[in-house]
Structures are given as C-alpha cells and as structure tokens.
Amino acid sequence: MTILALLLLLLLSIFGVGTGNTEGTSEEQTCVAEVGGSERCSPATTNGEYQLPSSGTVVHALVNNGPLPPEYQEGYEITIDAAGRATVVVTAPGASDDLGDQRTLDPIRTTVDLGIDGLQQLLRDLDNAGFFFLRTRDEIDPADIPIGGDVSNLEVTLADRSWDVEGAGLQSDDRVRLDEAQRVLAVAVGLDPAAPVGSSE
Prior knowledge:
The protein has 201 residues and is of the alpha+beta class. The protein is 22% helix and 28% strand. The chain has helices spanning 2-15, 115-128, 172-188, and strands at residues 20-22, 25-28, 31-33, 39-41, 45-46, 49-50, 57-64, 75-81, 85-91, 108-113, 151-157, 162-166. A six-stranded antiparallel beta sheet has the order 10-9-8-7-11-12. Strands 1-2-5-6 form a four-stranded antiparallel beta sheet. It has a two-stranded antiparallel sheet with strand order 3-4. Strand 11 and strand 12 (162-166) form a beta hairpin.
C-alpha cells in the first residue's frame, strides 16, 4: 500500500494537471481543449504562486515599429529577472544603435524593482489576460509570418517551461490578447501604453 501511494504521488508531481492537495500544499492548473482535441494549459501554481526559476530571465518583451531605416526606429525592450528586477530600455527615433555615430539621442534605460510579490502579481495579470493560452512561436509555420511590420514579442520562462509568443504570427483575437498582455507588462514597469511606441512618457 505504501509503494502504491508513493507511485501515485510521483505521478501527480510529474503530470500535475488539475487540482491536488498534498500535506498542506495546493497545486492548480487550468487547461482548455482546442478544436482537434489538443489541450492548452496555463502554468501550474503551488499555493497560488507561479513556480519561478532560481535565476535568469523570467519575462522578456520586445516592442518596436519594425524594420525601418535606423533614423525612424523606435520601441522598447523589457527584461525581468527571477528576483523581480526589471530593466527597461526605450529607444526613441534617433536613438537606434544602428545609427552609430549619427545617433542624436541615447536610449533611455531605467530599472524597476517589482520584487517577488510584484512579479507574481504580474504573472497573475498575464494569466488573466490569456497570454498563456496563445500559440507559441514553435507552433506557427514560419511561412505564415508576414515580412515587415511592427514587432511585438513576449516570452515568459518559468521553472517547468517557457511561452515564447511572436505577434506577427497571430491572428485577430489572439493578437488582441497579446496586445493586452503587453499593455499589462508596460504598466507594471511604469511605461504609458497609450504613448507612442518609443516614448517613455
């Protein structure tokens, strides 16, 4: 009987789908069935907390106006590590590294300390926005990704897996969900999502 119980616990820890409660630990995960029978799941949480990696980047976002001449390039990049420290780099027109000595402005670099609690709240907000149910980069045929246009990429890496979403490969409703996730992220690090792409105001 003891061996059977241990095997059951091992299977639950490996496949952890659904809701379980083991010695005061509550594990939850939401899954939805898609057309064709495949299943898409949000990250598993333990006692309501997302499982963070011990170090490294947890959230990386890149938003810009695409492959334009360097003097017109603008956008921002957000990187948040496992301790909740965010680095935000905003590039306004004239600040692109591609301009070299012709650059008229410097990118604006800021840091924001969200802390672990703030990072957990951000992950909840991304989950509520439906980000974890979007098609990831490896699920999209490169031939279906248009060339040119704006860039909106968002990657979240947790302890068990990562979600790498490329906006150019998404259709209508999914692109709206990604835009909402990017808005949530921008607000969390102090950017104004209503401002032009390369603005820090």
